[in-house]
């Protein structure tokens, strides 16, 4: 009887941990801006310039670059040829730049965002 209770308790604890892990993964999905534009990074350029696709753009003062783990990174840490999503301000400068994960790329492809 005690063995059965211990096994039952173990499976309940295991299922709680598994569901907590799944919830944590869902919580870490970041919300990408709907008005963002997709591109692939080109050759590295000196700060404040960035090449997105065929366009050479300027980072806005205070512009933020996020890596695939959603951490703010420096311009020099941009991975070459990475798929990105970026937003621009009223001047056309890059305000936010997100390095995309393969999952995010697939999600944007499914939504038809180019």
Number of helices: 2
- Characterize the main sheet: 6 strands, mixed
The helix-strand sequence is HEEEEEEH
Going by helix content, strand content and strand pairing, the class is alpha+beta
- Shape label: elongated
Mean pLDDT across the residues is 86
- State the helicity in percent bands: 25-40%
Q: How many angstroms separate the termini?
A: 60 Å
- Structurally, the number of domains stands at 2
DSSP strand count: 6
Strand content: 25-35%
Rg, alpha carbons: 20 Å
Contiguous low-pLDDT stretches (5 residues minimum) are: none
Description:
There is one protein chain. The chain has 114 residues and is of the alpha+beta class. The protein has two domains: 1-30; 37-111, no CATH class. Helices cover 32% and strands 30% of the residues. It has two helices and six strands, in the order αββββββα. It has helices at 2-27, 102-111; strands at residues 37-40, 49-52, 55-66, 72-73, 83-88, 94-99. Strands 1, 2, 3, 4, 5 and 6 form a six-stranded mixed beta sheet that branches. The protein starts with a helix and ends with a helix. 13% of the residues are buried. The model has no long low-confidence stretch (mean pLDDT 86).
């Amino acid at each position: 009887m005690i063995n059965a209770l211990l096994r039952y308790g173990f499976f309940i604890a295991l299922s709680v941990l598994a569901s907590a892990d799944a919830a944590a993964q869902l919580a870490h999905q970041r919300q990408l801006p709907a008005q963002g534009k997709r591109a692939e990074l080109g050759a590295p350029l000196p700060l404040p310039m960035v090449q997105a696709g065929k366009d050479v753009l300027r980072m806005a003062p205070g512009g933020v670059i996020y890596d695939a783990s959603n951490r703010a990174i420096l311009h020099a840490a941009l991975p070459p040829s990475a798929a990105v999503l970026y937003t621009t301000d009223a001047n056309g400068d890059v305000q936010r730049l997100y390095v995309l994960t393969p999952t995010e790329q697939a999600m944007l492809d499914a939504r038809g965002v180019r």
